[in-house]
Amino acid sequence: MIPAQFDYIAAKSLDDALSLLAKHKDDAKLLAGGHSLIPAMKLRLMQPGVLIDISKIKDLSYIREEGGHVRIGALTTHYQIESSDLLRRICPLLPETATHLGDVQVRNRGTIGGSLAHADPAADWPAAILALDAELVVAGGKGERVIKAEDFFVELLTTALKPGEILREIRFAVPKGKVGQSYAKFRHPASGFAVVGVAVSLTKDGSGKCQSAGVGVTGVSAKPYKAKGVENALKGSALDGKSLSAAAAHAADGVEANADLFASAEYRKHLAEAYTRRALDAAVSRAGK
Amino acid sequence: MKIEGSHTLQSARDSVFAALTDPNVLQKCIPGCEELEKTGDNQYKARLSAGVGTIKAVFTATVFMEEVRPPSHYKLVVEGKAQPGFVKGTGSLDLEEQDGGTLIKYTGEVNVGGMLASVGQRMLQATASMLAGRFFSALAAETKAKAIG
Amino acid sequence: MAEKYVGKSVKRTEDPRLIQGLAHYVDDIKLPDTAHAAFLRSIYAHAHIKSLDVGAARRAPGVLAVFTGLEASGAIGPVPCAAALPGLKVPDYRVLATNKVCFVGQPIAVVVAENKYAARDAVDLIQVEYEELPVVLNEEKAAQGGPVIHEKFGTNIAYTLTAGEGDIEAALKSADKIVKQKILHRRLAPVAMEPRGVLARYYPGEQELTLWTSTQIPHLARTQIAIMLGMPENKLRLIAPEVGGGFGSKLNVYAEEALMGWISMELDRPVKWIETRRENMQATIHGRGQTGYIEVGCKKDGTITGLRYNVYADMGAYFQLLTPAIPTLTGLMLSGCYKIPAIQMNATGVFTNKVATDAYRGAGRPEATYVVERAMDLVAAELGLDAVAVRRKNFPAPFGGDKPFKTATGLFYDSGDYELTLKKALDMANYPKLREDQKRARNEGRIVGIGVSTYVEICAIGPSAAAPAGGWESATVRIEPTAKVTILTGCSPHGQGQETSFAQLAGDHLGVNINDVTVIHGDTAIVQYGIGTFGSRGTAVGGTAVYMALEKLNEKATKLAAHILEAGSAPVTFQDGKFSAQVKGENKSITIQEVALAAHLARNLPPDMEPGLSATSFFEPKNFTFPFGSHIAVVEIDRDTGEIHFQRYIAVDDCGKVINPLLVHGQVHGGIVQAIGQALYEEVVYDDQGQLVSGTLMDYAVPRAEMVPWMELDRTETPSPVNPMGVKGVGEAGTIGATPAVVSAVIDALSPFGVRHMDMPIKPEDVWRIINKKSAGAA
Predict the structure, then answer these.
(1) Residues A200, A275 share a domain
(2) Does the ipTM surpass 0.90?
C-alpha cells in the first residue's frame, strides 16, 4: 500500500493552485482531504506525478448565508457541515447527510468539494446537492463559471470540470417556507458507501400540498441523478401516503442500474423506490412543523 | 462478467459492418485506442489509454477479429495488459437491418485480473457498460461521417 | 486456597498498553540497517510462468536483491503440512513459485531494498510472461474432473475419507422420514486486525537467526522453519511479539517467514516484510469452504436415527499446516449435543485454484454444528414439530465425572447437561411469549423469526495422540529473589487475555498481588517448548500446566517454610501469602516473599532441597473438553427491502469453571460477531477466472458495531473432569453456537413463504426475492 513516487507542492492560494494546475496539467492531481485520492494512489490505480495540495488554502473553507443563498467553500470538511449550527437551522439535509458519510476520521479530513469532484457513483453528497438544486462555482484560468448540480455529474467518476479547473464553492438558495428534508441511505455493509441513497428537500404550501420538491439519488447508477419523475409527481400532490408511493415509483425511471456482488440491478432499482419513499415520508413529517 | 446490450445506428448494415472491420475506424472507436497496428490476418497490436475519470492505465493489447461473417456477425476479442492488471474482453456482435439503419446486438464477457479485479469490483459493471457505450457512440459518429463523406 | 482473583472479572492487564498504542507488534520493532521486502504475486489463478525478467528490478535504485523461485526454492524446503491422512496427496509447495502458479496471490519473486518504498516500486519493474491455464474453482466440480492442478496426481482429489460409527444404511432405513439438504459453507477470510509480518536478523558470528513473526505457534514455527532452512533448531530464536489477532490464520507456517530468515542470512542484514491487507485477503489462509449434502433419518416423534454428511472440502491449491485435517474435525463433531446412533461422513478433499483453506475460528467444528443444527431444524419442519422439542428429544441425559458420553463419531464427551443451558436461555428469552409475539406479529403482516441452536464444541486440543504435533502444554513458574512472580507459558496468547487469567491463578495460589506477576510467552529463547494458542486450549491446557507448576512450587515453598519455621512435624498452613505453624505453642509465620528470598540465598535449606524457587510442569490432557451452550436469535425482516434486523440475541454458554467472566464474555462477544459475519455478510468470492473479487474491505464485509445486536449473556458452570481446575475453553464458542441460531432465525421468519433452508451469507436481496417470489439473477 505504497504509492508510486510523486512530487508535492502546497498551493498558497486559489490563483497559485490554478497556475500550478496549468503548469503541470494532466500530470497533477489536487489534494484536498485526500480520502479518495490517497487510497487510489496507494493501490497505484492513480499515479499522478505531482500532488498540488490545496488543503492549506484558508479562504476555501466556510459556510455562509448571504443574500438568500447558502455558500459552502469547497474545502469545508464533512465534519464542519455536520456540526454547523447554521445548516442545522436552515438546511438540515446537509448535516444529516454528513452523518452518513464514512466514519469520524473520514469526516474530519474529507471535504465536500473533494468528494463532489471525485464523483464516486455511490458517494452521499451528490444526492443532497441534487436535491437542493445547488450550483457549483468553478474557478479556471479564464475566470469563473457556474455549473448546475444536475449538469455536474457526467458519467462514472467523471464531472463537468475541465482540465485546469477547480471547484471553489457550492451554493444554493436557502430553502424557504414549510421545508422538509431527509436523506435515506442503504449502507453497503463493507464499504459504507450508498447501495442507494436518496435525498429529499421539499416545501409545502399553505394547504399542505407539495409546492416544490428536489430529489437526488446516488448509488443506483454510474452517476448520481435528479429523480425528475419523482419531483414532477410530487409537485401539487397532497403528500399523503398514496401520492408519496406513486411518486416514489418513479425513482429509477429510465436509469441503467448498477450491479455488483452485493446487489443486482433489479434489486437496486427496487431499493431506489423503497428508500425514496422513506426519505419522502421523513421529509413530509418534518415539513409539518 | 457478462455484458450485453444493443445499439441502433442510422447507417446501412453493410457500411456498419465495413466500419467495424476497418482498423482505422476501430482505432477511433475502441475507447482510448492510441495505436492500432496490424500484425496478421484479423489481428492487431494496440496501445490503449483506458480508464474512468482520473483512474487511467496504459494497456498494451492484442485485438483479434473472429467469426467474421459479413455482414451480420463477428466477434471482437481484446486482451490488454497494464501495470494494475489485465483486461480480457470478448464481444459477439450481430447486425440486423432495421428501417434502413442497423441494430447491433452484442453479448460478451469481460474479465479483469490483478489489482483491477481485487479493488475495482464495485465499479466494474458500470465501467464495462460505459466503455461499450463509448464504443458504439464513436461507431455511430464514424459511420455517419462515412455516409456523409 | 482462597479465591481472591479466580472467578472475578479482573480487568485485562494487557489492555493499557494496547489501548494507548504502546504495544510492540512486529512492525513496531525497529532494527538499524533493516532492509525491506516486497512480493510480486501471481495475478493469474492458474498459469505457466513462461518467462520471468527481474533485471530491471535488480538495477532499480535502492534495490539490494531480487530472489525468484529458482534461487529460493533450491535453498529452502517446502512449506510444511503437519496433517497426516491415509492416502493423502501432498503437493510440493515452494516458498516462491518456480514454473507454475496455482492461485491469485501466490508469491513469484521477492524484492529486497533499502526501504519499503524502493522495494514496492521495483516490484512493478518485474516482467512476467504467463501462459494461462484453465482453472478449477468449485470443489464439487473439481472432484468430478476437469483441468488437473497438480499433474503428477492426475486428479484434483487430495484424499477421501469415511468417518463415523454405526450402521448408517440400516439407521436411515429404519427412519420414518429422511430429510436431505445441500448446504454451503462459504470461504471466509480471517481478517486479523494485524496482518502477518516478519522481521529477521542473522548474527553470522554466533550463526544465530532471530525471527520476529506474528504467529500463534512460536515453538512449532521455530521447528518447522529450522527444517525449511536446514539450520539447527536451537540456532533459531523465534519471537511472537504482540500479535494482533490470529483466529487460526497464524496457526501456520508461511513461505514468507522462512524466506525472510533466508534473505537475512544471504544479505547479512535485518530484513522486514509487513503484509498489506490486500495480500492478507489473497495469500493468508481462508476458513471454511465446504459443499455438503446432509441426509438425516428421523422417527415421527423427532428421534434421529442416523446422519450422513457427504462433503467436498475446498483445500485450495496447496496445503498449509493443517489444511487437509480441518474436515476431520467436522466429522468428529457431527453428533452435536445429541444421541445419534449412526453417523457417517464421507469427505473428499479437493484442490482448487485458490489460496489454501485452514483453521479459522472453530476450524471444522462450526461446519459440523451448522450441519447438525440445520438438520434439527429441517427435521422439525418436516415433522411439523417445534425445533426446540426436536432438540430436547435427542439430548442425552446429563453426564460427567467418570461417565462420559460416547458418540458415534468416536468421541467421549467429558461432561454436559444440555438441558441446563437450553432451559436458561429459553427462560431468559421467555420463549413461549416470543412465539406468541411472533404469531401476533405475523397476523400484523410483520416478518419475525426465532432461531435456537444448541451446540457442543471440542476444545482443549488436545491429547497428543489426537494432535498433529503434540497436544500438551508447558509452564514454568518462578518466584524471583525480590518476590516477583514470573510465569513462562508455552502457549502464545494473542488477545485472549491469559496474561491476566494466568496471573489470577498465581495470585490465588501464591497469595500475591496480580500486579506482581508477569506472564512471559512467545519467545523460544526464554520460554520452554510449548505448543501454542489455538483450538480453545490456552486456559484448559496451558492454564492447567500453570496450575500444576504452581502446585509444585507451593509444595516446595511449604517445605522450605516448615524448615525455616522449624515446624518439625507440625502442620504448616498457607493463607494470604503467609505460611504459619504452631511451633512449641507459639504461632510462627513467614511470608512467601521471605521464603522466596531464602530459597535464593540458600543459606538455610533442607538437606535434600535445591536452591531457587521455580517449578516446571508439562500437562498432557487425557481427553478433549466439550463446552456447550444455547443461543437464541430473534430477527425481524423488513418486508419492503429484505433487510434483517436483530430484535434480541441471547446466549448461555457453559465453558466449565470460569477464571475470569470478563474474558469469557469478551470471547463470546467476539465469536458471536464473527458468526453473524458468516451468517449474514462475509463471503470470499472468486470470479469464474479465479480472480479474488472480494479482495478489499470495501467488498468483504466484516461486521461493524452497528450491525451487531445487544447480547444478553449468561452462563452455567459444568466442570470438566479432564483437568484439575475443571475449565473447558471458550475461544470459539461464539462462532460455533451463533451461526446456526442466526440463520435459523431468518429461515424461521421466512417459513410462511415456504422456506426451509437458505445458504449463507443471507443477504437482503436473497430475502427480498423470497418475499417477492422473484427468481434469483433476473435482471
Answers:
(1) yes
(2) yes
